Amino acid sequence: TQLLEQSPQFLSIQEGENLTVYCNSSSVFSSLQWYRQEPGEGPVLLVTVVTGGEVKKLKRLTFQFGDARKDSSLHITAAQPGDTGLYLCAVSGSARQLTFGSGTQLTVLP
Amino acid sequence: DAGVIQSPRHEVTEMGQEVTLRCKPISGHNSLFWYRQTMMRGLELLIYFNNNVPIDDSGMPEDRFSAKMPNASFSTLKIQPSEPRDSAVYFCASSFTGDYGYTFGSGTRLTVV
């Protein structure tokens, strides 16, 4: 059983559409991070959420941490081809080592 | 800062050969992590160091894998002997204690034939 379940696994949409991807767990976390990974590169940190119910916005991306701190969502408004990539959520262990979900592969078609 | 630097970017080797992957973390970061990424298993933590000391190597698949961090600016991951199932992208990441996020390198794509 994965510590973090991400859904959907794959998502292909047209430019301009909105989308939401999810990161779920049965465990409670003190913080959660979202990364985006482009082909041939390492993951890049987008945001860290630490408070239950917290909402953070990064341009067209909106991140929410669940009230119980067990889940998170990422909403993209008016997706663009540049948003294409693998979106990963991750949580810290006791020594700040990160465990990653399996990711959502997003493709935005022009 | 040039970020986390990994070398080589690509490595193709024959089964049984020794492979050494290299990483230079961001100056001032005191934690270093080695991850492996495959389609089947995603990103898996292999080992991490804090202040150059290995803290947890429970993710290292087997004794064929070893990692060292002789100083704050350099780490190696060695596979000896290599096997085809070791084919993957290996990432190094660094962070500073107290910071949430990691900075990843661009990875080494290893192919063992």
Tally of contiguous helical segments of chain A: 0
Structural class of chain A: mainly beta
Q: Oligomeric form of this entry? A: heterodimer
Largest inter-chain contact set: A-B, 21 and 22 residues
Blueprint (SSEs and pairs):
The complex is a heterodimer of chains A (110) and B (113).
Chain A: E1 5-7, E2 10-14, E3 19-24, E4 32-37, E5 44-49, E6 55-58, E7 61-65, E8 71-76, E9 85-92, E10 98-100, E11 104-109
Parallel strand pairs in A: 2-11
Antiparallel strand pairs in A: 1-3, 3-8, 4-5, 4-9, 6-7, 7-8, 9-10, 9-11
Chain B: E1 5-7, E2 10-13, E3 19-24, E4 31-38, E5 42-50, E6 53-56, E7 65-71, E8 74-79, E9 88-95, E10 103-104, E11 108-112
Parallel strand pairs in B: 2-11
Antiparallel strand pairs in B: 1-3, 3-8, 4-5, 4-9, 5-6, 7-8, 9-10, 9-11
Question: Can you tell me about this structure?
Answer:
The complex is a heterodimer of chains A (110) and B (113). By secondary structure, chain A is mostly beta strands. Chain A has strands at 5-7, 10-14, 19-24, 32-37, 44-49, 55-58, 61-65, 71-76, 85-92, 98-100, 104-109. Chain A is globular. The relative contact order of chain A is 0.33. The model of chain A has no long low-confidence stretch (mean pLDDT 93). Chain B is an all-beta fold and 113 residues long. Helix content of chain B is 0%, strand content 55%. Chain B has no helices and 11 strands. In chain B, the strands form 2 sheets. In chain B, strands 2, 4, 5, 6, 9, 10 and 11 form a 7-stranded mixed beta sheet that branches. In chain B, strands 1-3-8-7 form a 4-stranded antiparallel beta sheet, with no helix packed on it. In chain B, a hairpin with a 2-residue loop joins strand 7 (65-71) and strand 8. Chain B is globular and about 40 Å long. The relative contact order of chain B is 0.34. The chains are: A mainly beta (110), B mainly beta (113).
